[in-house]
Amino acid sequence: MNTDLLIERYLEYLAIERGLSKNTVVSYRRDLAKLQQFLEEEQGTALADAQQTAIASFVAEIRRNGASPRSVGRAISAVRGFYRYLLATKRIPSDPTMNIESPRLERRLPTVLTEEEVERLLAFNRRHEPLDLRDTAILELMYATGLRASEVISLKMGDVHLELGYVRCIGKGSKERIVPVGSKAIAALELYISGCRNALVSRTGTRALFVNSRGEALSRQGLWKLIKKRVRAAGISRRVTPHTLRHSFATHLLSHGADLRSVQEMLGHADISTTQIYTHLDKSRLKQIYLAAHPRAQSRAE
């Protein structure tokens, strides 16, 4: 596969799977183009053949050109992500960015919907047409389980055990996990399967849980489009991605008393530090707990 096609595949992965904004993807494309030009002109090598010294030289070059720490950090993120993608897809034997350090920046919190916004998003289903049933089932399932976009579109009928209230999915690193599903998501899935899916797949015989109008497995692009459509229809002005529902799932669980380890397991995070970012999103609840529990947090009646 040529270099330009590798870059396109990576950028598509960022937009669809990771849910990065159009502006971020454009910036990453620009950073990778600069790296490609630098490697070819200064190092005489292709992107897929770059060594750590060449990547370090590129980072030093953009610093010398006066890039801000945030721009340098973004460029490193773009490059590191690209090589990790190549490594994960077995196109390179090792990661040349392994020891490249990023500038220390304040961590940005993920975008999370309010519970009221989630209710609006899930309640909007005016026409009750077959594909509306599918869209509702997908949104209910994503909010109920925190599944990644890739995990949702990879689900097969045999992975869904509605009578027992759980789904089985294969996450990052091919790790299997079992995630519970609530009653509202179960009801939406049952309605979709009986009222939409069974008729569509009669022509194709696919085992995919979620299908398009042709009865074929739903694509990442299709998932992305249906979410954007429903967000607009629900009157939500903020940008919502498949990952926004995952963030909202985790944050709302923690805000209602779920323990961090359980949320980590449901999300499929290998490291609990990844899950801890959600503990910073509900400071008002932490303050309420403090005021209620600490003996000197507030004045008490004598």
Largest sheet: 3 strands, antiparallel
Task: Outline the low-pLDDT stretches.
Answer: none
Mean pLDDT: 88
Per DSSP E runs of 2 or more residues, the count of β-strands stands at: 3
Query: Any idea of the CATH class of the largest domain?
Result: Mainly Alpha
Total number of domains:
2
CATH T-level topology of the largest domain: hpI Integrase, Chain A
In angstroms, what separates the terminal alpha carbons?
A: 77 Å
Number of helices: 13
The run of helices and strands is HHHHHHHEEEHHHHHH
CATH superfamily of the largest domain: Intergrase catalytic core
Shape: globular
- The helix/strand class is mainly alpha
Strand content: under 5%
Just name the CATH architecture of the largest domain: Orthogonal Bundle
Give me the Rg, rounded: 22 Å
Residue share in helix: 55-70%
* Spatial sequence of strands, sheet with the most strands: 1-2-3
The oligomeric state of the chains shown is single chain
